[in-house]
Each structure stands twice: as structure tokens, then as C-alpha cells.
Amino acid sequence: MTRRIVLVAACALIDADSRVLIAQRPEGKSMAGLWEFPGGKVEPGETPEDCLIRELGEELGVTTKAACLAPLTFASHAYADFHLLMPLYVCRRFEGIAVAREGQTLKWVRAKALRDFPMPEADIPLIAPLVDLLG
Q1: pLDDT on residue 103
Q2: Are 117 and 108 in contact (CB under 8 A)?
Q3: This prediction's pTM
Q4: Cα(first)–Cα(last) distance of the chain, in Å?
Q5: Which of 4, 12, 14, 119 has the fewest CB atoms nearer than 10 Å to its CB?
Q6: What is the DSSP code string of the chain?
Q7: Phi, psi angles (nearest 5°) of residue 35
Q8: What residues are paired with 89 via a beta bridge?
Q9: Domain range enclosing 60
Q10: pLDDT of amino acid 12
Q11: Could you tell me the CA-to-CA distances from 91 to 2, 21, 47, 56 in Å, in that order?
């Protein structure tokens, strides 16, 4: 069976206390109630870095530059109707204060605590590299 491949870029936004920002998917969206890293679908002709700069601005009101986005790992996950390919970038340098602009709930959490939050299946393998990085 051939599935379409969906490219989604995700960002581990890290604050001065080495906490990671996660967002809870709002009611009405697929996988509502699950926690995820900020990001979104990479549009045609867009790089993952450009996608994250756009999404962080739209979703959270923070700005960053491509040079501040460091690739850490990626997820490759088969869902029933598509295959998700999701690079995870780390961003420690950004401007502004993250604010929920799309009705989502935000939390800053320690990397080790990420396992305490229900996440989409594709996000789970991204936790271990963050724990290794941040302790």
C-alpha cells in the first residue's frame, strides 16, 4: 500500500531554565487533547526552517532565525492514511514571550517530564534525544 508522505517540522523551544515548550491540541482538531511540540506542515517550496519561523510566529508570537534552529532528530511514523516525516529542531534563541494564539494550552516542562504528557505516537521517539541533550 502506498501512503502519501507528509512533512511536518517540529521545534523544541527551550527557555533559559532548559525547559521545553509543549502545546495541547485544542478540541475540534485531530488528536485533540494530546501534547505536541510547536510546528506544522511544510508548505510546497518551503524549507523546514522557514516553516518553523512562520509557525512559531503564527502559533506563539515568537520570532527566530534559521541560524537559531538546530536539527536534533526526526520521526518517521506510519499512520493509517499517511506517513509522517517530522524533523525536530532545537531553538534556544528566540524573541518574544510564547502566547497561545490558536486556542491551545501551553506548558514549559523539563525534558524528563515529557513522558508524563500524552503525545501523538510520532512524537514519543523524539523525547529520548531531548532528555539526552537537556538532562
Answers
A1: 83
A2: no
A3: 0.94
A4: 40
A5: 4
A6: ---EEEEEEEEEEB-TTS-EEEEEPPTTSTTTT-EE-SEEEPPTT--HHHHHHHHHHHHH--B--GGGEEEEEEEEEE-SSEEEEEEEEEE---BS----SSS-EEEEE-GGGGGGS---GGGGGGHHHHHHHH-
A7: -100, 145
A8: 11, 71
A9: 4-134
A10: 98
A11: 34, 10, 16, 11
pLDDT at site 135: 85
Distance between CA atoms of residues 130 and 3, nearest Å = 29
At 9 the pLDDT is 98
By the 10 Å C-beta count (0-12 exposed, 13-18 middle, 19+ buried), 22 is classed as buried
What pLDDT score does 1 carry?
63
pLDDT at 127: 97
Number of structural domains (the chain) is 1
Q: Which residues of the chain are modeled with pLDDT < 50?
A: none
